[in-house]
Amino acid sequence: MIITEINEKIPPPLRFLFKYAPNSQLRHHFFGYSIGVLEDLCEQHNYGILELEYNNAFIAPRTLTNARFMDAESAYAQGYRDRPDRKERFASNLDMEILHSRSSQKGIEFLQDFYAKEHGKYYLAADRESLAKQLEGKD
């Protein structure tokens, strides 16, 4: 089993991936990867999402007997978005709350504006295929 931290602020189906650079300055909300990217990585390596506990994802090989794997949408809803204490525990995320009520395209527009100072330092897509195209042409 692997436990990995995700950027919980960015809901599926959006895909966000921070471009690592040796002297990168991580800042509030600008780090890591979204659960959508984690789901893509799991598929590539025959893993699955078992559970999300706020911003910690538990994944395991799909060969694990009797495991109940979840898609990113379900894991995100159960493990973060629909948790009754989420807004209190993650009060610093309230400025990103709008992403839960926007379409993918509007969510991308919001994030591009929100991360304007970080232009070129991340990948952002509405779906797996769009992210794959960006990664194929990566710097």
Describe the SSE topology.
Layout: E1 2-5, E2 15-18, H1 35-44, E3 47-53, E4 56-61, H2 72-81, H3 86-89, H4 104-114, E5 122-125, H5 128-136
Antiparallel strand pairs: 1-4, 2-5, 3-4
Helix and strand composition category: alpha+beta
- Give the number of domains: 1
Compute the separation of the termini in Å. 32 Å
Order of helices and strands: EEHEEHHHEH
Number of helices: 5
Mean pLDDT: 93
Largest sheet: spatial strand order: 1-4-3
Largest sheet: 3 strands, antiparallel
Q: What is the number of E strands?
A: 5
Low-confidence stretches: none
Query: Based on CA inertia axes, which overall geometry fits?
Result: globular
Strand content: 15-25%
Rg, Cα atoms, Å: 15 Å
Helix proportion range: 25-40%
Describe this structure in words.
The chain is α+β, with helices and mostly antiparallel strands and 139 residues long. The chain has one domain. It contains five helices and five strands. The strands form two sheets. The chain has a three-stranded antiparallel sheet with strand order 1-4-3. β3 and β4 form a beta hairpin. The longest helix has 11 residues. It is globular, with a radius of gyration of 15 Å. It starts with a strand and ends with a helix. The mean pLDDT is 93.
Question: What attributes characterize this protein structure?
Answer:
3-stranded antiparallel sheet, two-stranded antiparallel ribbon, alpha+beta
Provide a short characterization of the protein structure.
This protein is an alpha+beta fold.
